[in-house]
Amino acid sequence: MTKIVHMSDLHIGFANFREDILLNTINKINKLNPEAVVISGDITDNGYYREFVKVKEYLDLLIPPTIVIPGNHDARNIGDEVFEEIIGDRYSTLDLEESNIKIIGLDSSEPDLDHGKIGRLQKRFLEREIKDAEDRNMFIIITVHHHIISIPNTGRERNVLSDAGDVLLLLLENNVNLVLSGHKHVPHVWKMNNTIFSTAGTVSSMKLRGNTHPSYNIIDINDDKVQITLVNNDGSTEVLTPP
Fold this sequence. Notes:
This protein is 25% helix and 26% strand. The protein is of the alpha/beta class. It has a single domain (2-240), classed as 4-Layer Sandwich (Purple Acid Phosphatase, chain A, domain 2). The strands form 2 sheets. A 6-stranded mixed sheet has the order 3-2-1-10-11-12, with no helix packed on it. The chain has a 6-stranded mixed sheet with strand order 4-5-6-7-9-8, covered by helices on one side. The mean pLDDT is 95.
């Protein structure tokens, strides 16, 4: 069984960012010792240089291999350029050779805009990486900040991928196993055909809807079977299953 942690929307720089919760989560993750950590964007609140510097300090505390992609907040104030300077490539892959899993990270952010787009260049990159994974019979995970399928209980739909339909078709045609996103701060799981779509809440900010908690997800993969467990900062857990 392979264990992966998915967290999102740290929002470092936000007035109600909770360093204590983030440090506690990082400590728990290191003790859990997953095969990888996926962070699906909005690591900063405003895309400022000093916010990225602080983010890097926290990321360096994580022991497991980690893949990080930007969110819409990270693309503010030329944060897209700063992301590359301090964090690394805005889209990339992480191959877990022992588990035969490929994680493909995409950048859906647009400078100073809340909505997102994958675009033609990244779509070609995605097609190449999916083909490589299929040739090697790998379990495929995609992570992208903006959700591809709308999420319940998030209000009026505004901040979506402009090319969501084309991306969704590509994922379903290739039977991608798992798609991880953030953005809305509402944990939820959909399943469409053979693909599971999972969103994570905010791990360390108080930008919360209703009576919810900062949280992250633990993903257990056994062959092609996937279990996603929501972990709240108060210690409560819940297995997320598609409706």
